[in-house]
Sequence to fold (454 residues):
Amino acid sequence: MSQGQRPAKVLIIDDEKIIRDSFSRVLLKDGYAVSAVESGRLALERVDEEPVDIALIDLKMPGLDGMETLRELREKDPDIVSVMITGYPTIESAVKAVKLGAYDYLTKPCSPEELRIVVARAAERRKLFFEKEQLRRLLDARGLSEPIIGESKAMQRVMEIIRKVAPTDSTVLITGESGTGKELAAQAICQLSPRKEKEFVAVDCNALVETLLESELFGHVKGSFTGAVNSKHGLLELASGGTFFFDEVGNLSLNTQSKLLRVIQEREFKPVGGTQRIKVDVRIIAATNQNLREAIARKTFREDLFYRLSVVPIHLPPLRERKEDIPPLIQHFLERYNRKRKKPITGINPAAMEMLMKHHWPGNVREVENLIERAMILEDGAMITPKSLPRLSFTEGPEKATAHIPQLASLEELEKEHIAFVLKQTDGHKSRAAKILGIDRKTLYQKVQKYQLS
Fold:
């Protein structure tokens, strides 16, 4: 159901005409879209015809009574917020209604103000649910299932820490250069945690100015600043029950840092311009490419927040320190972008691979992805060759600024050298080596025998 900015639709279900009419007048005056029926059966037919946000259900009705109407409405649309109405309230009926999914209880006769308060609470709950669904769809669209690729000992240690910390609710601080995969590590923690079915919300702390960032995180009340024409729920509230990822947390202002500290310590916060504290249940993960200890020395980052965030620190090493991860990363991105192509790229030739293995990779994994995507677009043949690669920076040799293609070695010599290198990096695992090389196992065995590599 897409609610957007339209008024909440209220369905009044009561066999007494005076109740239907009086409730309708009050709610129409308050701007709700109102319809009314005199029986549970008619209510079910109405819901089939048009969406309903809030249902006010009389408990005692001839035919289909209120409890049965509530149960069948919930089966048709579990998102309807239901309020039970009765002139004979009992503890037993209240408990039963709540168990069946009723949100609230209204005793008649009631004053217009009591009706307004109950329906306003129901509308707020419906709005919050709607916003959470929007957020979930947005997150689903982003695709949060990207794996962490890395066979090096350094990345295996990272994954071991992730597996150990994921089942807990401890805060985690992920450090590493830009492009090393900090958000992927945070997503992996979420996917391995008891909160995996709930929201994973990522916020780039460097993307918004302070006032807008605080409004996004904590929400705001109407009129709290210029442009705040309506109250707004914050992302922390919408993510309650899930995992919240603060990317580049070192860019938060000291004022926002103090508010985040309170969220971690007290599990509560105030919306911008608000006075009421909101309780929240979220797992906090933060990441930064800065040295936060140096930021603490400069008085730009709170020391107490640093220790609250880094209960479990995880450092992602740069790609230049784990070059054995380059071939599997290349293979991964080849497979990903091949799914979008009519004519697949089957692999990468030895000369091109040699260039990529010598590259400095200042952009880390993100740079690998961008480079492979570009090469696959530019490449005319079935394999990536040096001509489809950009100028690359090397980590060794006098020609550090520019990539070069070796001129003295034959193609067979390059192939032999590259196959030997890949076999060494995969500890002789021929299936994995064949996958990285873009050939089948039989072809690899033939080449191993040809070059006497076994």
Remarks:
- The chain has a mean pLDDT of 83.
